[in-house]
Design goal:
By secondary structure, this protein is α/β, with parallel strands linked by helices. The protein is built from 20 helices and 25 strands. The protein has three domains: 210 residues, Lyase, Ornithine Decarboxylase, Chain A, domain 1, CATH 2.40.37.10; 235 residues, Alanine racemase (TIM Barrel, Alpha-Beta Barrel); 82 residues, no CATH class.
Amino acid sequence: MHSETWSRDIARRVYGLEHSIRGDVLDIDEDGYLVIRLGDRSLRIRDLVKQFGFDLTYIRILPLISRAMMLVYETFNELIKATGYKGLLLPVYPMKVNPIPVVVESIFKYGEKYKWGFNTGSLGELQLLVSLAEKYSPRTLIYDGVFTEKVVEFLLKLHKLGWRVIVDVESEHDAEIVEKYPELEVGIRVKPITKPHGKWSDSAGLSSKFGLTMNTLIKIMDDFKWLKSRTVLLHMHPGSQISRFSDVRTYVKELRSVYEELLELGFENISMVDPGGGLAYPYLDVRDSEEESPDYSVIDYARLLISEFSKNHRNPDLVFEGGRFIVASHRILVTKVIDVRPYSAVKYKESTNTLHEYAEKIRSIRDAKTFLSRVRELLGELRSISEKDVKIRELYEDLIALVEDEISQRVSALLLTGDISISDVLGDNSILRIMTSPSKRFVLNMSIFADIPDSVLVDQYFQVIPVQGLNRQPEVLASLADITCDSMGEISHYISPGNLLNTRKPILTTVDSKLVAIPGTKLKLRGVPLTLPVKNEDYYIAILDTGAYQDTLAMKHNLIYGAPEIVIDVDEEGVSIRVVRNGEIRV
């Protein structure tokens, strides 16, 4: 019996290419290569990287930024039109998400027709905006950083260029400075009480870093009588990547309640509501509310905001501030495999009586129903081997490798013949761990600390995919190690979205007999399903959706940093490709 026949359709789903943001821009061609499709052009990523001789590169697909902006703008405006909502969409890009010039210029350029504005919080971001502003039409700026005289100087420069400049007041200090500049409009940033689930839950709540509590606001309002008349914006922020729609709904209800309370307090000129970030980017697009995969879409998000604020007698303009949603998809990290090593112990010939004895014990278990329980006993026997001196270490390693290898092969065969069920395996943690553990370690010419630092900092999930061989069934599960001296520089988890598959049987690797996907079940693997490089093959791995935060959080660990870039754009003449050589070259 064989596992489900591999196909491009299965590969697209296993590797996360059926995606609501990227769409079909990333795809697999008939020969199994990962390609970038723009218009009538199809660019093989492997060929691009080899053409420029890069072992590591960032590929920036700028039209993916445009695609995300258009999706947001059209979604909101179609719902506004359909519901008769009287407010407008006011999109702004929070520069903290990725403030490098090529990204900011893309927001300017692609956002021209939408009047896409900006949200900034530092002097450096303001300086970059001012340097680019004269090339484009005036926009809206929401500034929510700390005030200094230098910051005000650049805010006034944008105002003189025709920009609408709104500055958040979060303290008495802010109010004292803003009072001197009546040409600047005012926003009030309020702390939300709602604390959503997720890595950034501390961004909300009364102890959060940003915003005013309501009692502090009332005191400031009494001390600065002008505040009511100059305030045009309510700004709140619930934290990044809110994956549960129930949390979003709770937060938006609180946002509307605060808006109504401010109107009752006399802030009659508030015409804009900024819900901040929070809209989750689908690093894995299976809609199940876990951190890497939100259980809602941008359509759900827009509909909720419009529906909630339709209940008010005034329909405020709605600010969209989802920067991660706009830029995450545009950057792909591509890196070369420079070595393939065993992940752990390696099974050698059964050269000792003990090895042969354990092999025979496993092979002699004929009854599928008792196989799993008997194997658990054998694993317990192995764990009880406590003498780890040099004399028996080789034997111990061989025993572990042999038992795990035999179990993988036998469990795979029993699954495919139907003698044991998937639920039997899923219900046995010892067996499931073996069936989802890597047998290989692929060493990549990159630094996780420099290239995808959030993988270390916040355990961010990034989709991994080989750029070739996608027409072949994966052969092994492999962890991905970088070339730094730190053991944290490794990707050792992969989420297999079997709940998207319509296959009848589980999909297994063909060499180490590990699980790749289970129909109807989202499975967390401890390695990435990959084919093995053949001798002298240039083998590359792509890591997707690295366009938000990674550029500016990069560290110089081991002085490994500064990847060259391949920047892809589309203009009137078609697809353009240019190379930017940054920093140091890897080994």
